[in-house]
Write a structure and sequence with these properties.
Length: 414
């Protein structure tokens, strides 16, 4: 069976040629099939080259020295910020704060906006789908401020019903912090009406866009949220780099989180004053090579075209879900109508960890377990799943291979 996608076979071949890890052979010389993009995407060649250029030619610190290599490093670092800002249609590069990833971006928001704005009894509204990165920072903050975590339940198919979500806002809701796409089930949450509702009530909004930014066009101004968080390694960039975007007025109003070099304007033993954003939130030497690599990743994605990436994503994930659900003894966990990037399933009689290991022997890389989203696993009545996750490089052949391998695993396992 085949599926027609927005990215034709020739372009898929070109994309795959840019992702050297996809050419790997594993175990007994089996060609690898990479279906773990929701955890980390393969690194794109231009990313590898940009990082190498920094390491080999101008591996200096940024913003601090006047010598040529430092200027080149600073220029490349700030150009990467501008690339990311353009990619998400931010109003200015200064609205993009480099962090270690989505987790650090949400913690930054919790420890700046949250710590300075939330009081005892104030509610932070999240969904049942959240990754631990959008649960635990709020629980930590609740211990300090007395704020309360309030959860929008999902439907039995793993979707978020807009009416139900809107009914969860209360007079004490101060923040809507919501995932755009669930890493565990692949659910696309219709976040626009929730953001619009929050805005109309003066409620601040933060979007966990970890699974969205590399999968669909993102225009933060059109989205209307106050802030979004995402990770470079889920969009073909390096690990250890990600971003918090927040609109300029909000970012300006936030106090610092971590203290140290770069985030200050002046320092004396009597006290210090703060740099302007984004540097106010980038204490210490940042991940310079990571940022430069992320800049290369977004240019690479722009070259493919995010409309094509999104269309391919929907087609390929839909096909994957259909094919896997057609295999005897396989049950999809989460069957939302709108799905992107991930399909979770369990196999009757085979533990997810065993299933993942056996698929690996066929060269198929998937993730097993709770996917750092324990509450949604519990809500769906499972302790864990096998998750196959896709990207703009996923081919029909990849889907054929997992379908065949899973069928074989089930036959052999008995
Ligand atoms: N949020 C979602 C939806 C994710 O999928 C992930 C990672 O899987 C994270 C947050 C955390 O991202 P990171 O580990 O890059 O900080």
């Amino acid at each position: 069976m085949s599926v027609s996608t927005a990215i034709g076979p020739d372009q898929i071949a070109a994309i795959r040629a840019d992702l050297p890890a996809l050419a790997r052979r594993v175990h007994d010389d089996v060609p690898a099939v990479y279906l773990d993009a929701a955890a980390s995407t393969p690194r794109a060649k231009p990313v590898i080259e940009a990082v190498r250029a920094f390491d080999e030619q101008f591996p200096a610190n940024v913003h601090r020295a006047t010598h040529q290599m430092a200027s080149e490093a600073t220029e490349a670092f700030e150009a990467a910020r501008a690339d990311v800002a353009r990619f998400i249609s931010a109003a200015a590069p200064g609205e993009v704060v480099f962090t270690r990833g989505t987790t650090e971006a949400i913690n930054l928001f919790a420890n700046t906006w949250g710590a300075s704005s939330l009081q005892a009894g104030d509610e932070v509204l999240i969904t049942a789908l959240e990754h631990h990165a959008n649960i635990v920072p709020w629980q930590l903050l609740a211990q300090r401020t007395g704020c309360v975590l309030s959860v929008i339940d999902c439907e039995d198919d793993g979707s978020i019903d807009t009416e139900r979500a809107l009914s969860c806002f209360s007079d004490r809701t101060r923040l809507l912090s919501v995932t755009w796409i669930s890493n565990a089930l692949g659910t696309i949450v219709d976040i626009e009406p929730l953001i619009a509702h929050a805005r109309s009530r003066g409620i601040t909004t933060l979007v966990d866009a970890a699974q969205a930014v590399g999968h669909r066009p993102v225009d933060v101004r059109a989205l209307g949220a106050d802030a979004i968080a995402f990770s470079g390694h889920k969009m073909f960039g390096p690990t250890g780099i990600g971003c918090l975007w927040a609109h300029g007025e909000l970012l300006d109003s936030l106090p610092p989180w971590q203290g140290g070099g770069e985030m200050i304007d002046t320092v004396s033993f009597d006290g210090s004053t703060w740099n302007t954003p984004p540097w106010r939130f980038e204490a210490g030497t940042p991940n310079i090579s990571g940022a430069i690599g992320l800049g290369a990743a977004v240019r690479w994605l722009e070259h493919i075209g995010m409309d094509a990436v999104a269309a391919h994503d929907l087609a390929v994930t839909g096909d994957l879900a259909r094919r896997l659900s057609g295999i005897d003894r396989v049950r999809l966990v989460g069957t939302p109508t709108h799905r992107s990037g991930a399909v979770s399933f369990v196999v009757d009689g085979i533990h997810p960890a065993d299933c993942g290991m056996l698929l690996d022997r066929h060269g198929i890389a998937v993730r097993t377990g709770h996917h750092c989203a324990e509450p949604i696993m519990r809500r769906m009545g499972v302790s864990g799943t096998v998750r196959a996750s896709t990207g703009c490089f996923t081919s029909v052949d990849d889907i054929d291979r997992i379908e065949q391998a899973l069928t074989r695993v089930i036959e052999v396992f008995g």
